[in-house]
Amino acid sequence: MQLTVPEIFYTLAKNVPFPLYAVGGAVRDTLANLPSSNDWDLCAPVSAEFFSAHAEKCGFTVKGVYKTTGTVNLSAENLKIEFTSFRTDVYRRGEHAPAKICFTNDILADAKRRDFKCNAVYWDLKTGEIVDPLGGTAEIESRTLSTTRDADEVFSEDGLRLMRLARLSAQLGFTPTLECIFGAKFNAARIQKISAERIYFELCQILHADEKYNLQYAQYNGLKLLESTDVLNYILPELAAGKGMPQRKDFHDHDVLEHSFRACKYADPRVRLTALLHDAGKPYMFSLTGKFHNHDAEGERIVRAVLERLKAPKKTTDTVCRLTRLHMYDLDGKVREGKIRRFLVENADIYPLLALVKQADYSGCKDDLSTCPTLLKWEKIRKKMVSEGVPFSLKELAVKGNDLKDVVPAKYISKLLHELLLLCAQNGAQNNRTALLSAAEKLAKEICHD
Predict the structure, then answer these.
(1) pLDDT tens digits for 329-338?
(2) Is the pTM of this model over 0.90?
(3) What is the separation of C-alpha 445 from the centre of its chain, rounded to a whole number of angstroms?
(4) Helical axes 351-366 vs 256-266, angle rounded to 10°
(5) What is the rounded (10 degree) CA torsion for 358, 364, 369, 375?
(6) For every residue of 311-380, which 3-state class applies, written as one string?
(7) Is the predicted pLDDT of residue 352 greater than 70, yes or no?
(8) By CB atoms within 10 Å of each CB, which of 76, 209, 338, 345 scores lowest?
């Protein structure tokens, strides 16, 4: 098999006085018949400085040279490239950054410092030959994941490998060996040595694992591996507490944790994080009352604490928390149309996402992919509102703040506009200047009195 390599790499390999290898994901993906990205890893038994000097002569842009780690960041032809000198690493148990680095000329030693055998296959760019010190090609062919050394040793060194195991297994569709799984399980607590930002990044990668190589439900498989290795207990203990917690059989086929996984399994990519966390309040409420009542409100608080701990972006945190709070609304479909109209207007900015969450929640109950009945009801009402000309935002309202400056003091204008918007929610015909100014005069007394 011929590795599809940018021509500039061959030019570099021909012009340097040392062997040059492609390694890692690009080689693995080619051998697995998967599409490669524009991210490339190169390596050689030479120093970072020596390599960078030759790379620049061949037209590469050197963006950073890190002598301590033997790393060079480069770019060329819109490619993202990282070079690393052959080396061995010594870790403080569990910490991602090596405590000591020793450079070597031995490709076997370099291979053994890596995490999984499938990532330790080298493509000699001078000769076009595969160099496979650890048997990684056989594992790629069998779609297997195993560590480059004893699994307990590999996972004990770097806690981030626990998340990478779940991510790579999910993205690639590779099955970890039992030794690999047990090695991760024995070292699950090492994840506590990893920064929250890195954990959050890897979790998001797992939640979107299906998008990497278009493997259906890959995100579900990644989450199940986090559960089976006990890593979930450390990164999302609030969620893990739902394992084995039964739910009403007439609504659910799964316990609380499995339902959360299934909701994420069927969720649109835009709401995967919410689908995973939407019921995080259930274990807490059950521990207090033996019931799940009010888990949506408590869930909002718990989810905020979780995402702040993981240092998720504030906008993401606010959105997920709001969706968590709203996901139970009109669960039984008995809320009156008037209240639904008001709800749809008040939450118009987030309604498309909320609909996706409601659908994921419904599908995750009994693995039913038909449209959620509540959404059928809501959409019927929403379409009726649209046909009536109901405004769903202040921009669509027929009056503006300046129109009300003689009706109420300035500090009440925002509140009055909101009330007029909700008034129109019940009757789209009200959205005209004359009717709204008349209604404003009547509402002004109540608003100012409050």
Answers:
(1) 999 999 999 9
(2) yes
(3) 49
(4) 120
(5) -20
(6) CCCHHHHHHHHHHHHHCCCCCCCCCCHHHHHHHHHHCCCCHHHHHHHHHHHHHHHHCCCCCCHHHHHHHH
(7) yes
(8) 338
